Amino acid sequence: MICVRNVSKRFGKQVVLSGVSLNIEDGKTTTIVGPSGVGKSVLLKLIMGILAPDQGEIEIFGENITRADSEAERNRIRASLGVLFQSAALFDSLTVYENVAFALNQRFSLPRKEVHERVVSMLSALSLESFAFRYPQEISIGIRKRVGMARALITQPKVVLFDEPNTGLDPLVGQEVYDLIKECRKKWGFTGVVISHELPEVFQVSDRVAMILQGKIIEEGTPAEFAASANPAVQQFLNGRIDGPIKIQ
Ligand SMILES: Nc1ncnc2c1ncn2[C@@H]1O[C@H](COP(=O)(O)OP(=O)(O)OP(=O)(O)O)[C@@H](O)[C@H]1O
Ligand SMILES: [Mg+2]
């Protein structure tokens, strides 16, 4: 389980998160939603220990990444996490094969033969064999997302964090990405953390939904509980209404 306990984060005078607590349960997918700029990516970076909170702490399977006192220690704790960043950036100068191998080489010093075997098996599990020697600019965005997934999964993480996996995609490719998440969760059974503002589409991959607004979690529950929330900000966000407590900047 990932425990986020009373976490606050500000940049200069701008308070982004103030007292966020959230339990991310094993084997489930928890989706974090909220309007643009509320601090969803910041929360993800705090979980990964890329940013440090001003207050509060974060435990990953009982290990406190906030109190870890060296990068080596943080790396050890991070080994259970895989991530697909918002941009899903692949290295343009590396082939699909090299992109996936890179993620493995970066974290572990494995014999070349083992790296090769693991990359080949991951590419095959994700039906990417025929793209192995292509460059990112030569493949479709949907295939690039699959490669991003292969890169995240190659280190065999217990948790996979997805930062807005569908942003900038047309609805058909967007649905392909949801199908990909479902397919991979079935195959590898990881705990998922998805950041999204695509409601209600993201519900199909969510066991729990939590919404951040003005630095706090304002609602948390199953998708059905979330959809039935009495909180006017949740209803405004869910229905994409201009009028309501959420002010569009
Ligand atoms: N390293 C940083 N230094 C200063 N300000 C930052 C930093 N990272 C994030 N912020 C600010 O924190 C706020 C929250 O940013 P964040 O990227 O978490 O938003 P978000 O909820 O992920 O939005 P989006 O849905 O658009 O991705 C923004 O106002 C952003 O400018
Ligand atoms: Mg973001």
Strand content: 15-25%
- Topology as H/E string? EEEHEEHEHHHEHEEEHH
Radius of gyration: 18 Å
Per CATH, which architecture of the largest domain?
3-Layer(aba) Sandwich
- Multimer state: single chain
Total domain count: 2
The number of strands is 10
Count of helical regions: 8
Describe this structure in words.
By secondary structure, this protein is an alpha/beta fold. It has 2 domains: about 170 residues, 3-Layer(aba) Sandwich (Rossmann fold); about 60 residues, no CATH class. Helix content is about 35%, strand content about 25%. The protein contains 8 helices and 10 strands. The protein has a 6-stranded mixed sheet with strand order 6-7-8-3-9-10, sandwiched between helices. Helix 6 links the parallel strand 7 and strand 8. Helix 3 crosses helix 4, helix 3 runs parallel beside helix 5 and helix 5 packs parallel to helix 6. The protein is globular, with a radius of gyration of 18 Å. The relative contact order is 0.17. The mean pLDDT is about 95. Bound molecules: adenosine-5'-triphosphate (ATP) and magnesium ion (MG). The site of adenosine-5'-triphosphate has 11 residues, from helix 1.
